[in-house]
Design a protein that fits this description.
The protein is mainly α. The protein has 10 helices and 2 strands; from the N terminus they run H-H-H-H-H-E-E-H-H-H-H-H. Helix 3 runs antiparallel to helix 4, helix 3 runs parallel beside helix 5 and helix 3 packs antiparallel against helix 10.
């Protein structure tokens, strides 16, 4: 049977090799393409992961850039707003400071005017009191004495009334600028140059004759009186006056106190009386304090 089959179907070994159908060829190619090695598959996975990571990174960077631009824009607007507010606040502070400075200047001017008025008032009191004590004294001399008393009482922190009435008690005739006692006490405040040698030497270029000068004599007398008052052994004004007059007789001291009482009576002022212009100064000071508080 085998021979029969071989006879019926002879094998042609010299002929062309039969071709596969076209469909089979396409299928084979696809099959060959799909077949990849594990290394290729692994490499493709890595490339895919890298591409996805790059994409995600690019998206993140884009989002970050957008956020930064938004924040920067908001920050710029806030900075601009804040700068404007700071400038406005600074201008307001400078304006308030300028107002305070102007008010301080106005107050100082008012105080200066009031101070001059006060000085004139004190000078007038001294001058009037001397006129009451010694009406026959030359007005020009009286004014020179009054100015010297005011100046050196301010310098040595002494009472105008005390010094004025001390001069009255010490001089004979009263307020005689050339007065000289038997004990060689000179001038209005009866300076004993023999007792106060040290003080005279401390005042350079001072001669004994200079003690007849009104201003020099009152200055030196105020210096001595201030020293007696500040002495640690002095406890009362009476003790200081005893040392000044250089005696135990109290008649001079009683005379000084009597004339000081007369000063107070003649220059009595109502309590809490506000002088003209003082109210303006007080009002300006209150306004200035309020302005300074508002600036703070």
């Amino acid at each position: 049977m085998f021979s029969l089959f071989m006879a019926e179907q002879p094998i042609d070994l010299t002929g062309d090799i039969p071709e596969f159908p076209k469909d089979s060829e396409v299928t084979l190619k696809k099959t060959r393409k799909k077949r990849k090695t594990p290394i290729q598959k692994k490499l493709e996975r890595k490339v895919y992961v890298w591409k996805m990571a790059s994409l995600l990174m690019a998206m993140a960077m884009a989002v970050l850039v957008i956020i930064i631009s938004i924040v920067a824009n908001d920050a710029g607007q806030y900075k601009s707003k804040l700068g404007k507010e700071i400038r406005e606040h600074g201008q307001n502070v400078l304006y308030q400071a300028r107002l305070v400075e102007e008010r301080d200047f106005e107050i100082s001017t008012l105080k200066e005017k009031l101070g001059r008025k006060s000085d004139i008032k004190i000078l007038s009191k001294i001058n009037s009191h001397i006129e009451i004590l010694e009406p026959s004294l030359d007005p020009n001399v009286r004014m020179i004495i009054s100015k010297a008393i005011e100046k050196w009482c301010n310098e040595y922190n002494l009472s105008y009334s005390l010094v004025t009435n001390l001069i009255y008690a010490e001089t004979v005739p009263k307020f005689n600028i050339f007065s000289k006692s038997p004990k060689d006490c000179i001038g209005l405040m009866q300076i004993n140059y023999k007792v106060h040698v040290k003080e005279i030497e401390e005042m350079k270029n001072l001669k004994v004759e200079d003690l007849y000068h009104i201003g020099t004599n009152i200055k030196f007398g105020c210096l001595i009186l201030r020293g007696y008052i500040d002495d640690k052994d002095t406890h009362t004004l009476t003790q200081a006056l005893k040392k000044y007059v250089g005696g135990t007789d109290l008649k001079y001291i009683r005379l000084i106190y009597e004339k000081m009482a007369l000063w107070e009576i003649n220059n009595y002022e109502k309590p809490n009386e506000v002088e003209e212009g003082e109210e303006d100064v007080l009002r300006e000071m209150r306004q200035t304090d309020a302005s300074k508080d508002s600036v703070k």
